[in-house]
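Q: Give me the 3D complex with zinc ion.
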Amino acid sequence: MPARHQIFEQLRQELVAIPVVDTHDHIRPRDTFERPFTVSALLRNTYVNRCLRVADGSANGIPLRRDSIVVEDSWKATKEIVERVKLTSFYRWLLRGLVDLYDLPSAELDEIAWKRLSVELARRYTDPDWQRTVLDRARIQTVIWDPFWKAGTWSVPEVRFRPSLRISSSLAAFHPDASDYEGCNLIRDWSQTFNVTVDSLTDLEDLIERVLAENLRAGCRSLKSPIAYERTLAVGPTSRATASGIFGTSPASISADRRLAFGDYVIHFCLERAREHGLIVQVHTGLARLSDSNPLLLARLLEEYPDVTFDVFHGGYPWVHEVGALAQNYPNVRLNLVWLPQLSTEAAIQALKEWFQVVPQLDRICWGADSWTVEEMYGGLQAAKFVLARALADLVDEEYMSLDDAVTAAQSVLYRGGAKIYGVERERVPDTR
Ligand SMILES: [Zn+2]
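A: Here is the predicted complex, encoded as structure tokens.
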């Protein structure tokens, strides 16, 4: 029996060239980033920025003040930021990705590496093929793409992208002046495109259908629910008459209860569309408004929609055991490791080991990078591969499973699981053994 580190190395080798389905990513089109694209611009568009938030009383991890602390493009300013974040998993994996993609001369960001990165970032972000090159290098076959800056966007920057329709802007559409937490509103964003006026709940339902139809034509396979950032995950029963009565209330005068009730109705409406079109419902759980984002709050919906598949995101962190319990109890639940390896490598390893033991059947756990830039996506994939090799090496070493089964399990998380869940299998996974 080889030692644990040998098994780990063997598994890592197996995963080097594996094709990948990235089931959740934001990858912003290159031309939406500032120019020239600097080191500080990169950091502002990564989770490093999240680590630098100030206590402004916001409950959901999203700063009330959107201006970033990362502003100055100098080595001195960058060094100060690095000193603050250098132990976080977010930073470690971003840096690994950068070292690899930009051939940085050292494993840590020092002045020489910073200079090289500054020159190369600016240069590569003028190259229209740069993002595609990184996706190819990562062997990403499909990206389930979430353009959060304008929910409903269906024109994709890359053929391998499939839009996921974000439902939050529809929840805010009880009035055209209302906004979701990202500033979106389905009526404001899309009624002109279709040349329609939205004066009633019926009009709104019609608009949702139209936006969905365009998304479906563009290869959409899922709805995305980020609601935990602004309301509870628990969805109550509601009636169309109630929602119809709430429609048109101005955002200044609507009560929290009525806003919630309207949202409940729209969520049910969207879940019925998911059932009708066989769409996967992607749900952000865990880190958001912590008082209301425990994944167990989904139980009622999972029972109400047994024929809809729910992909539960982020391991529900910190509720990683709870999502395991959901997947064990409800066959319509899938678990998504998305973001967790970058958030805490160690938490992801422990969670995965537990999930392999708890979740019945293969191909029910998948992965995504949840990044705005290809650089962070690339580092995030390295994190996922590391996490898989560590978790599975433990299980092989403990004689819980064979090495062959470990390889199959890793391939499932990075490719087959995502391909099967989202129905996007394009090529057979080459047998790397
Ligand atoms: Zn995301």
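A quick observation: DSSP finds 18 helices and eight strands in the chain.
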